[in-house]
Structures are given as C-alpha cells and as structure tokens.
Amino acid sequence: MSKKVSLLLAILVLASLLISACQPAATPVAPKVKVCQVTDTGGIDDKSFNATAWLGMQNAAKDLGVDVSYLESQQQSDYEVNLNTFVEAKCDLIVPVGFLLADATSAAADTNPDQKFAIVDVDYLAQTNVLGNASKIDQATFLAGYLAAGMTKTGKVGTYVGILFPATQAFMDGYAMGVAKYNEVHGTDVQVLGWNMETQEGLQVGNFESLDDGRAFGEQLLDEGADIIMPVAGPVGLGTLAVMQERGTGLLVGVDNDWSVANPDKADFILASALKKIDVFVYESIKQVVDGTFKGGAPYLLTLENKGVGLQYGSKFADQVPAELKAEVEGLIPGIIDGSIPTMPTR
C-alpha cells in the first residue's frame, strides 16, 4: 500500500513540475518613467508658472503612470545644484521652470547629452536633448487689454513686470495693443500706465517673489488712477491683490493660470486671467518621453489656435461683463489666429 502511495506522490510531483515548466515566463515589469521638476525661486506653490507646471506633472502621473518629484530653488545658485541632483538621480525627463534657469539648463544639457530636458518659457536653446517652450501669450493679453479697456471706469489701466525679458515683454505688449484696439474701435482714449510700447520701458519690480513690492506697485498704480491692473510678476501680484481687497477697490487681471480659482477669497477683485497653459506643454513633453517620440532642438508653441493660451473670466465676473463686450472679445479671436489683427507692435 505504501509503495502505491509513494508512486502516486511521485507522479503528482512530476506532473506539477511539467505544468510549471510549461507556464509562460513572467513578463518583466518595465520601470516607471521618472520626471523631475526644478522650480525657480517662486516655489512650487507660486500660483503661477511653477504651480502650473506641477499641475501638468500631476496630470501626467495620473494619466500616464509616471513618477513625479520636484526640488524648490531658494536662490539662483540652487539652479545648477538641483539640476545636477536630478541628473544623478537618473530622471528620464527634467523640467526646469522659467527663463532664469536657462543658463544652468544649457550647461547641464551640454555636459549630459543623453539627459532629456523640457524647459518652460525658453525657446532658444538648440541642444537636441532640450525641448523648449514658447507661447503667443500676447494673443491672450491682447484680449485681456481689450476687456480691461471696456471695463475701466477711470479710463486708466495699469501693468507692471517682475523682470523684463522677451517672454514677459510679450505680456505687456499684448495688453497695451488690446487697449489700443479698443480705443480704435470705440473712439476712446483709455491709457495704459506702467508700460510704453514705443520705448519698451515700464514699471519693473526686479524679482518674482516680493509681495511687499506688489503692494507698493499696486498702491502706486491705484493712486495714479488705474482701476484695473495686470501684474506680470508671479506671486508679486498677490501683494497688489491684497491692497485691492483692503481698499475695497480695483480689479486685477491675473496671468498664467486662473487667479480667481487660485485665490477664491479674493475673487471679487479678479476680472479675468490671461492663461498661459504651461501644464499643456509639460504634459505633452512627458507624453513624448513615454511614447518614445521626444525630440528637442525646437520649441513647443502654445497659441490661441491650439488652446495653449486664452482668456478666462473671473469666477465672480463671468456674468458681470456685458454681453456686448464679451461678444466683441470673442469676435477678435479669428482675426488674431489668422494674423489679420496684430497683437504685437511693429518694431
């Protein structure tokens, strides 16, 4: 009897070995794509470029299953350090945010030709491992300027910039061109304080961090009669928004993202926002890495036509802007897209 049991056990063991041998080999799990963001000194919660780029990172993590992380730069000397930290961490894609990181990114790209970079708001780096980003933000701020000119009660609107360079210059020019277009259509004389298109000079803070500077510039423009202000300075604009709330007067045009959503407690003072959808660029860059189609050396352009830029009415003002003015603003878009309505001055 015991011999029969032993024989049966032997047969069962042999059968299990044969079955195991016939099983297909387990498919190895591919490592997740790792994407790493380096902020400028505004920080990850700046309610501007860094935060919008991080939104694109988070959306990619959700949709594409990539791992995302970030390092915040506290000062400019951190840019090189943070970029090199992520190179050493073997990130598949590094996303530096903003013009101020251009030199450090260019150096890192030269030193590490196999490392992929997608840099926000820089369109002139030619390395094939760097995907740049440009935008026709002047198209969005043109619409904002037209809207502001139609909504002002004082006949004066204002603007100021954090640091003036070509990308921020386009915000100012588009805004002033939009005001000029409104004046042309309506025979009005709305003035723009803080920016001169002819001299390409205006109010400049000198940084993208100081809320105190935002307060000071906001107070100056309000005191000079501007009742609608567009700060082009990231978190600095929060200082201007705080002054408006304290005084109970003035309206702000946000930039980059929807300021009425980012600052719901101050939505009563946010007329609209000129959107620069950095999250779209970041998401598409990550998707290219995931798909194996990443190609640097030329910028990814955000426009009204591809919905990479646009105008968003503030959450409290969507129903307060006159329907006629809304229709005029909407009617400008086809002409802007086909080029028959210029949004930048001729130089």
How would you sum up this structure, described in words?
- This protein has 347 residues and is of the alpha/beta class.
- It has two domains: 34-135 and 280-302, Response regulator (Rossmann fold), CATH 3.40.50; 137-276 and 317-338, Rossmann fold.
- Helix content is 44%, strand content 18%.
- It is built from eleven helices and 14 strands.
- It has helices spanning 2-22, 49-64, 78-88, 102-111, 137-151, 166-186, 211-223, 237-247, 259-262, 278-291, 323-338, and strands at residues 34-38, 67-71, 93-96, 116-118, 130-135, 156-161, 191-193, 195-196, 201-202, 228-232, 251-256, 270-276, 299-302, 309-313.
- Strand 11 (251-256), helix 9 and strand 12 form a beta-alpha-beta unit.
- Helix 5 (137-151) crosses helix 6 (166-186) and helix 5 runs antiparallel to helix 11 (323-338).
- The N and C termini lie far apart (104 Å).
